[in-house]
Amino acid sequence: MTIWDSLTGRKSASTTTSGSTAPPTDTQTDSFQPAPFDPSTATDVSSFLNPSTAFDASQLHPLAGLDKDTLDYLTLEEGALSDLPGARSALPSRGWSDDLCYGTGTTYLTALTLGGAWGLAEGLNKTTPQMAPRLRLNAVLNSVTRRGPFLGNSAGIVAMVYNIFNSTIGYYRGKHDATNSIVAGALSGALFKSTRGLKPMAISSGLVAGAAGTWALVRKVVFE
User: Fold this and answer.
1) Binning pLDDT at 50, 70 and 90, where does residue 171 land?
2) Prediction pTM value
3) Looking at the record, which segments are called Disordered (predicted)?
């Protein structure tokens, strides 16, 4: 006991050091042994899937709404094909909108390809093998991009106007024939060059009318 402890009256705790002893452990042995698996006693799907009630909609959750006779189905009915005489073409047509899309798109892509080939040949002819490869490639690409879009855009505009005229004439005449195509081609060609004077209008009208007549003949021979 120290002097401070005697003045304050606090008793000092006696510390005893004892050796640490490990608590006794009880060793338990597991005597469980699994039973061997017998495949003959296993249950298959048919034991709980009854064919008579497996696909009964009334057994489903009510929130699904499948147990009622008020199901709404999304029905997509294709539009009826055009029934005008002579309306059959390379692709099934449901009217003037299909003809406009098919005709304009096909004509534009065809003319764009031909114009690109024209520009490629022109660029190769204008350049010489002695030119630097970069300069020659640049000249060829300039020719391709100049001729291709020019021919594609021009043919696309003519085809769009032609299909509008052709569908309008066919609607009022009640049939599609070579006369419709030739008249529509003549009007389309004349309208395309209407700002250049009478002579360019006549030349363009004759060219487009001839192309339309050729297409009408091919369609009659191949698709009818």
Assistant:
1) confident
2) 0.56
3) 1-44
